Structure formats: C-alpha cells, structure tokens
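Dear Dr. K.,

Following up on our conversation at the group meeting, I've run the structure prediction for Phosphopantetheine adenylyltransferase from Thermophilibacter provencensis. I'm pasting the input sequence below exactly as I used it, so you can double-check it against your construct before we proceed with anything downstream. Let me know if the numbering doesn't match what you have in your notebook.
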Amino acid sequence: MSSETITHVVVPGTFDPVTLGHVDVIRRARRLFPRVTVAVAASVNKHGRGTAFTLEERADMIREAISLEGMPADIEVMPFTGLLVDFCKELGAGGVVKGLRAMTDFEYELQQADLNFHLSPDIESVFVMSSPEYGYVSSSIVREIASMGSDVSSLVPANVDARLRAHYA
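The predicted structure tokens came back this morning:
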C-alpha cells in the first residue's frame, strides 16, 4: 500500500441521469480532495439494463450541471469503459469516492470496494454519506417519475430536468 497523500480521486457512476444527490457527492469530494474526475461509466447501468441517455449525453449533462451549480471548473468529466481501477491508474488517481444513501448501498459498495482492493490495493475507497435531503433520490426513481410525466425538478439540476422532459415527451 502506498503511504502517499491522495490528491486525485474519481467519482464513478452511470449517472443516468445525474441527480442532485450525485452533484452533492461530487461537490463534497471536491471539498475533500484538490482534484476530482467524474468517471461516467459506459452503456450498462448497475441493474444490467441499457441506459436512457448515451454516454456522451450523460457526460454533457454532468458538465453542464457542474457549471450551473457553481462548482469549480477544474472538475473533470470523462467517460470510461473497462475496470474502474484501471481507469484510476491511467489517470493517476489514488482513490474512488462513492455516495451512500442506505444500508443497501453500503452492502453493494462494500463488495465493489473489496473487489477493487483485491485488484489494486493502492486505490482507496472513500464513502460519503448522502445529505439527508437526497437520501431517497436515485436515477432509476427519477427516470420512472419523469417517464410518467411528473415533475422531477426538485431531484435533478435544471438542465437535466429539461432533458428528461424532452426525452419522455
């Protein structure tokens, strides 16, 4: 294991779509670490289904949301395929930051962290508890509500709300 201080972390996810909960985790990761890369995972969400938005659409929505939310312009957004630990190594990132909403998130993310540690012990996993106002927000819930024509503006950044309304029109 490395004893170096971690200065660059990756915040990975499918972000289909990015929610205010995701934005909160990204903001908090940036407060903890001087360099943050948001890693947008390609094609399949964690439930094994295809995504509602393309990889580039999801990356663009995150870039725009970061700007609209007044977050530092130095937060990078990059699509990736393959293993997360390999992507971290390519970037020189020493850690992965994940948000946790509930025990079910913890169980899933702990398994992922253990696997990542097995594959690459030098890449640390850092868990950030969700802010209480976002504990119930998930991309799948947002998509379901939006697909029924209901308002999701309190759950997603304004640019994402507009994209969802157009997508499900």
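Two things stood out to me. The two ends are 51 Å apart (CA to CA). Residues 103-119 form the longest helix (17 residues).

Best regards,
J.T.
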